Amino acid sequence: MHNPLGWVLDREQRDRLVAVARTQDCLIIEDGTYAFLEASPPVPLRTLAPERTCYVAGLSKNVAPSLRFGFAVLPGRHVESVTRILRTAAWGAPGVVTALATGWLSDGTVKRLEQDRRKDAAARQDIARAALAGLDVTAHPASYTVWLGLEPHQRPDRVADVLAAEGILVSTGDAFASGPLRPAALRLALATPALDELGPVLHHLRDAIEAIAP
Question: Does residue 214 register a pLDDT over 80?
């Protein structure tokens, strides 16, 4: 699941991407951090092209932010070099963290917590759709983010400053731009406010944005 747009590549798009990667002899790095939010995900790229796909993920988003445990599934020829790089950067996770993470993966705890997170994310998206109805919103129905497009006269940096003065922190679109184009949009993170506070916060955000005159 793409962050921040919430897009998920379907099987046809994945097959095309793999075909291009093989034709051009490219390595694919597949980020599975938010894959758990899609209840019926398409087959991973790792399954379609195991010889050139590095699948990376962790447990800080689907289980707990403080559980700093990640993993990578790699083509055999890259295992040694990636392991060496990781050891240079961090050596390894503490044994107690590894034991906790692998235990929860094995006994179904992670699966149960992921189901709970999907329900929570879907509930928050329902609140966001109601509060932001009629605005330019892009989001997956079970994502923790909303991509909110702005009007031409609403400069993202100016809007972010106005919202910050109201106690609402957002990210501007340029933080996610990979080229010269800077999208006139904001990324809204829905996970931080308490569920019963999210609606009022988003209504406040909407009022503050709509009050910005051309």
Answer: no
